[in-house]
Amino acid sequence: MLLTSLLALAGTDAGLAPSGKWTVDYRADKCVASRPFGTEPATYIALQPYVSLDVIGAKLILVAPNIEGSGVRNGTAKISLQPASTEKTLGYVSRDSQLDGARSYEMSLDADTMTQIGQATSLAITAGKESVTLETGRLQPVIDAAEKCNDDLMRSWGVDPAARATPLGNPGQWFTDDDYPPAAARRHVQGNATIVLTVDPNGEVKGCRIVATTGDADLDEGTCDMARAHARYVRKGGADRFSVLAVHWSLSDQR
């Protein structure tokens, strides 16, 4: 009886073992590395590097069987990185999926956290009611593979990842609520766009292309209009350079 009890207690601390290999999904507008863990319904972990020449980071997404009901939730997740025993606290957005009975927990990783996660071989994540330990194996090769996918994606857009244009100021301030494309705002249209800017040696934007559309022509056109109006880059002689920007358009309650 004592041995049985001890085995049961030990089992509660055991992490979920992988139930499949890491895969890198080459999508039209992003790269996602993911792996399943445990038995069906499986739990998944995914890494999605930001498609950017300026920002180093990624989304970390946990997808698990839904134990929290419906709706969108925001909260703070605690992540323990082993074997270094590094503790991280990250904000998350959680959404349920009515199609497969799962819930996702999406967290943002900055460059320093990416470096720390790269050295980890397991992740213990607590977010909302969800608490799980995943025996991931060393994560740096996974990050490297996802970032290589990102570079390949940019090349498919005609962008040389080495020919980076250095922005003057914060690109996030080039697209504000005051700049919301009026025609799209009147129709309450929201969306995400990814644009490629071609920058001349004087640091001026000479071209803007939508490589991932919002799905709305007014919002797409307005994104490029704002980039041409506000984006400025460091001057540098020689050939043209590039900037890749992801722009999120969201209407506030006041609109």
Description of the molecule:
A nine-stranded antiparallel β-sheet has the order 1-2-3-4-7-6-5-8-9, with helices on one face. The protein has two domains: 14-156, Immunoglobulin-like; 171-249, TolA/TonB C-terminal domain. With 255 residues, it is α+β, with helices and mostly antiparallel strands. Helix 2 (111-118) packs across helix 3. It is built from five helices and twelve strands. Strand 6 and strand 7 form a beta hairpin. The chain has helices spanning 2-13, 111-118, 140-156, 182-186, 217-230; strands spanning 23-26, 31-37, 43-49, 58-65, 73-82, 86-97, 102-109, 122-127, 130-134, 191-199, 205-212, 241-249.
Short description:
With 255 residues, the protein is an alpha+beta fold. It has helices at residues 2-13, 111-118, 140-156, 182-186, 217-230, and strands at residues 23-26, 31-37, 43-49, 58-65, 73-82, 86-97, 102-109, 122-127, 130-134, 191-199, 205-212, 241-249. The strands form 2 sheets. A 9-stranded antiparallel β-sheet has the order 1-2-3-4-7-6-5-8-9, covered by helices on one side. A 3-stranded antiparallel β-sheet has the order 11-10-12, with helices on one face.
